[in-house]
Amino acid sequence: MKVFKFGGASVKDPEGVRNIAKIIQLYQDDGLVVVVSAMGKTTNALEEVVQLYYHRAEGYAEKLESIRQYHYSIMEELFPMCQHLVYEEVEHVFYQLKLICQTKPEADYNLIYDRIVSYGEILSTRIVSAYLSEIGIENTWLDARKLIKTDQNYRFAKVNWSFTEILLKQAIRNAKGRYVIQGFIGSDDNYHSTTLGREGSDYTAAIAAYCLGAESVTIWKDVPGVLNGDPKVFENTVLLRKISFTEAIELAYYGASVIHPKTIQPLKQKNIPLMVKSFARPEAEGTEIQNGSSLEPMVPCFIRKTNQAVLNVSTTDLAFIVEEHLSQIYATFHRYGIRVNLTQNTATSSTFVINHDPVNVPMLLEDLKMHFTISYRPEATLFTVRHYSEKLMDEFLRDKHPIISQSTPVIYQIVVF
Ligand code: ASP
Ligand code: MG
Questions:
Q1: I want to staple 315 with a disulfide (CB 3.0 to 4.6 A). Which of 168, 301, 319, 385 is the partner?
Q2: Are 290 and 245 in contact (CB under 8 A)?
Q3: How do the pLDDT tens digits run along the chain, 417 residues long?
Q4: Which residue has the least CA distance to atom 2 on ligand 1?
Q5: Which residues contact 240 (CB under 8 A, 6 or more apart)?
């Protein structure tokens, strides 16, 4: 059995859905679990619905309607017969979304978020599965909310591995079958929908592969594989043919957007190779992430992380910042699910480079203000260079004015505004 994952960009239009079918047809002899993300920017759009609904603001109905129109425009091309069953399935999803939005929002924002946002993947998989059937690729649509079991940590749910493994093995019995399942979503013990963190569909692919002992995972992308930098940001990027699991974990940790950070660990544990291939050129080799040499070719890797903020925390009475303060500050980060990407300390203050989350950061700041003096500046960017050389960094830093820089023998990091 192989696991394939198709992200939002690969199903953003009818052409994309047709292309998935073409790729699947290239793998006639394999059993496949096909993990699919929400179409295009649907998750972002659903996030907006959540915001509007939660704050009882105007406009959620229009937003929902535009998401509906978008999916209909794709379906109308793929299924010209308007009585196709898929229309009913999709309509049912929007009916459920409308029902949710008509009730009074519960207090727990993250619970509501997961309840609503998870429908993006239900929609995309309904459409992909129906299209595959339509053109004669027999397949089974699976509901990840019944199979991927998690705790109640909404928006960042942790997987219950043993339970999930039992359920997936029960649902996926035919080693030659084709199964279509949603990425990113699951459910807790009460069958409330949960999500695994933004861009979590790669992780779902890894979960499925781990639980089923799959032969490999392939992530199909709009790039030829993993490059040594995002080509939209950096010039002269090269394709990395091979990356070790350990190197991939490091790259993902620092924000290389190609693979979701949590994806690699389960695969490494069971030694399941991860391929990253181009959905536009499926025959091309791509990148293989496996248990082997760290990088092939051995080149510096560049990572840019945007939407960062620089938070400075100091004691109100100019006392030294000591372990006691730091543990209190980190506990507060943990409480609001804030990820710290870089730190720097002086005697009386600590600087943290964090992800700027528009919902949780304001709450974090309120909380910290009760005990510390703080300053906060968003719109920062964190650059990380792995396997750098002094010469390379001279060049790299020429047009940048870092307000923080830090290095180890392997990694060079800077923060700029
Ligand atoms: N649709 C989800 C997101 O956009 C999950 C994913 O794309 O992997 O975050
Ligand atoms: Mg997505």
A1: 319
A2: yes
A3: 999 999 999 999 999 999 999 999 999 999 999 999 999 999 999 999 999 999 999 899 999 999 999 999 999 999 998 789 999 999 999 999 999 999 999 889 999 999 999 999 999 999 999 999 999 999 999 999 999 999 999 999 999 999 999 999 999 999 999 999 999 999 999 999 999 999 899 999 999 999 999 999 999 998 899 999 988 899 999 999 999 999 998 888 887 766 777 899 999 999 999 999 999 999 999 999 999 888 999 999 999 999 999 999 999 998 999 999 999 999 999 999 999 999 999 999 999 999 998 889 999 999 999 999 999 999 999 999 999 999 999 999 999 999 999 999 999 999 999
A4: 199
A5: 225, 226, 227, 228, 287, 295, 296, 297, 299, 301
Q: What is the pTM of this model?
A: 0.85
The structure tokens 């239900």 sit at: 122
Task: State in Å: Cα 385 to ligand 2 middle.
Answer: 26
Q: Whose CA is nearest to atom 5 of ligand 1?
A: 199
Q: Which atom of ligand 1 is found nearest the CA of 198?
A: 9
* Ligand 1 pocket residue status of 120, Cβ below 6 Å: yes
Candidates 107, 141, 150; CA nearest to 122 is: 141
Ligand nearest to the CA of 196: 1
Contacts of 281 (CB under 8 A, 6+ apart): 224
Ligand nearest to the CA of 199: 1
> In DSSP terms, which residues pair with 383 in a beta bridge?
304, 414
- Distance CA(345)–CA(264), nearest Å, equals 31
In a 10 Å sphere around its CB, with 0-12 CB exposed, 13-18 middle and 19+ buried, how is residue 267 labelled? buried
Measured distance CA(48)–CA(26) in Å, rounded: 38
Q: Sheet containing 349-355: give its strands across.
A: 340-345, 349-355, 301-315, 372-386, 411-416, 404-407
Atom of ligand 1 nearest to the CA of 41: 4
Among 59, 67, 64, which Cα is nearest to 39's?
67
Q: What are the residues facing 218 on neighbouring strands?
A: 4, 275
